[in-house]
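Quick one:
INPUT:
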């Protein structure tokens, strides 16, 4: 249903510009009658980044904005289908994460610019690129982590791509889109520096996770994910980890461990009795718990949200 380990850094602007049927070569979108472009995003994470680049010159609709919603299991509605059909630019995660989007695009007909962040990122192995897999197809998603919004360099690449596409469709505002993307990129560059500094403050620092959601942020920070892969993958797939794997995970919090954990990073949107057990083990020995989410909390934007999470990680690694 979702992710895994970690790949390398994001590559250049390689996302495909697609038709709704998934083939290449769609023309740049035309502005709506009121002069604004319509961007449709699968989640409010990508909607927020589109807003940062497009500003008031662009109309943004995010299909998933509920902080409690799980995009892995989201079921699209007829309203979603109509929204996608009316979009000039569509942004979605790809990589099997928001698998309802390719289906909506296929049924939408017509032509629009589609940005598949999985394709854009360069983080998906070549044999996986362009494939969409469901939770029931028997495919092992262990080769890559599809939570690309925690790959900060990838989000810079996405902002640049959005500026390029919006500017091509709306030349009068192209300079504004470019400037907005540059401002966003600078803010993200600051987050990268802060994450790297946090990790550098505890060289070789080990952390545990309940799911691989924050994997790219852990990688950027230079931290070590000590979690047994079988544990985080089972939680990711909504299955119960084997008892021996749970025991091995809980053993990470043994105070007698020579190299104690610096933090537990927990996905607050998918807590289960098993992850609650891990949280309790961490709290019992004073290991800080850092909560992360998959969608934006209400009342914030991407930069604010990610800043809060980087600051929480920094504080956990260096408690007062």
């Amino acid at each position: 249903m979702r992710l895994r380990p970690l790949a390398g850094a994001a590559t250049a602007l390689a996302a495909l510009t697609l038709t709704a049927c998934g083939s290449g070569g769609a023309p740049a979108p035309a502005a709506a009658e009121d002069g604004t472009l319509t961007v449709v995003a699968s989640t409010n994470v990508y909607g927020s980044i589109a807003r940062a680049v497009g500003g008031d010159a662009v109309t943004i609709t995010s299909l998933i904005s509920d902080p409690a919603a799980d995009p892995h299991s989201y079921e699209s509605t007829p309203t979603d289908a109509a929204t996608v059909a009316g979009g000039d630019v569509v942004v979605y995660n790809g990589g099997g994460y928001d698998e309802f989007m390719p289906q909506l695009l296929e049924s939408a007909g017509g032509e629009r610019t589609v940005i598949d962040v999985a394709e854009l990122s360069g983080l998906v192995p070549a044999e996986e690129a362009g494939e969409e897999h469901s939770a029931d197809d028997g495919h092992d998603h262990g080769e890559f982590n599809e939570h690309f919004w925690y790959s900060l360099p990838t989000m810079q690449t996405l902002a640049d791509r959005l500026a390029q596409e919006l500017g091509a469709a709306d030349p009068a505002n192209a300079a504004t889109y470019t400037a907005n993307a540059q401002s966003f990129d600078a803010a993200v560059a600051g987050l990268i520096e802060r994450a790297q500094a946090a990790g550098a403050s505890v060289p070789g620092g080990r952390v545990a996770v309940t799911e691989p959601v924050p994997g790219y942020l852990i990688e950027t920070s230079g931290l070590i994910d000590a979690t047994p892969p079988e544990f985080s993958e089972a939680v990711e797939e909504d299955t119960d980890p084997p008892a021996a794997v749970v025991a091995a995970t809980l053993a990470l919090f043994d105070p007698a461990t020579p190299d104690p954990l610096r933090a537990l990073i927990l996905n607050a949107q998918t807590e289960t009795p098993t992850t609650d057990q891990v949280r309790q083990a961490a709290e019992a020995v004073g290991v800080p718990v850092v909560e992360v989410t998959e969608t934006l909390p209400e009342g914030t934007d991407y930069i604010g949200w990610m800043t809060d999470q980087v600051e929480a990680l920094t504080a956990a690694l260096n408690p007062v």
